[in-house]
Amino acid sequence: MTLHVNNADASNQGKTHPRNNQWRDGYNHYGKISRTLHWLTAVLVILQFSIVLAWRGTGKNTITLFLDSIGPHGSLGLLILAVTLVRLYWTWLNRKQRPPKAPGLGGKVAHLVHISFYALLLFLPAFALLRQYGEGYEIRLYGMTILPEAERHIAWMVAPADLLHSPLSWLLAGLMIGHIAMALIHRFWFKDNILARMAG
């Protein structure tokens, strides 16, 4: 008896092909959802730093009040935390079909930097929101109450942000500048497709 095997089936045996779905990640690119979440995070973080630096540099004026109306510090922090949680969940869902990590020391450093990004994007807003609640203020998102104010001062909620929020914020800023610089180096110096994976 002769066993007939379809050529297409035979060629697919033992191989794992990236999905054609543009919304999901693939082995050579990040999907539309990953790219949207990435650039949304970038916009929120840059806006957060821009408002803080504007207030520190110029104080209260028409521009800083306008920026603050667009992105209140607490509301932006809450949005950054929410988007980061969604990114982590989406990363886990796509963990078996994402672009592979670069080999060698450079790949290990890049992986460590990305882990640091996620950790900072989680802990920075979480510490700040804990401090806000622990100091007796309600948690609000653009005027909408998310969590009513605490009845008393809660020291253990306030302490982590008092100790770590400012230095970790500047660490995040440094990593972000380095991240942008390396993306541009890959694009214009190495001329590889690293940036294209996330830029589409």
In short:
By secondary structure, the chain is mainly alpha-helical. The protein is 68% helix and 4% strand.
Give an overview in words:
This is Cytochrome b. Its cofactor is heme b. Keywords: Cell membrane, Electron transport, Heme, Iron, Membrane, Metal-binding, Transmembrane, Transmembrane helix, Transport. With 200 residues, the chain is mainly α. It has a single domain (28-192), classed as Fumarate Reductase Cytochrome B subunit (Up-down Bundle). Helix content is 68%, strand content 4%. The chain has a two-stranded antiparallel ribbon with strand order 1-2. Strand 1 (139-141) and strand 2 (144-147) form a beta hairpin. It is globular. Residues 1-19 have low confidence and may be disordered.
Lay out the secondary structure.
Layout: H1 7-12, H2 32-58, H3 62-70, H4 73-93, H5 104-134, E1 139-141, E2 144-147, H6 155-190, H7 194-199
Antiparallel strand pairs: 1-2
Please work out how many helical segments DSSP would assign. 7
* CATH homologous superfamily placement: Transmembrane di-heme cytochromes, Chain C
**Multimerization state:** single chain
Structural class: mainly alpha
**How many domains would you count in the coordinates?**
1
The sequence of SSEs as H and E is HHHHHEEHH
State mean pLDDT (0 to 100 scale): 87
What does the overall shape look like? globular
Rg, rounded, reads 22 Å
CATH architecture: Up-down Bundle
* Portion of residues within helices: 55-70%
Largest sheet: 2 strands, antiparallel
Strand content: under 5%
Q: Report the top-level CATH class.
A: Mainly Alpha
CATH topology: Fumarate Reductase Cytochrome B subunit
